[in-house]
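Example record used in the benchmark description.
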Amino acid sequence: MAKKVLDNIMTNKLPEPEVQRRLHFVARFLITIAQFALLVLMLILLFYKMVPDSSRDLVSAITGMLVISQKDAVQYWFSQHHTDKS
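Model output (structure tokens):
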């Protein structure tokens, strides 16, 4: 499927706005997946691994920032403007 999408983009069979829309979707999707993976990693470090006391506050702060960024990602995926385009 990925090869088919790349072939369509490379041969310019799709109109420019459609290409931009698809690339924007893929970029948002990959960023969301990366944020979620980092959040899970930080939660595992915080609760299941031995983290030195000097680093525990830093891990907690980074986890809090990732939770806030996940809120923005969820807001994007479930916002009204996103569902109107389908």
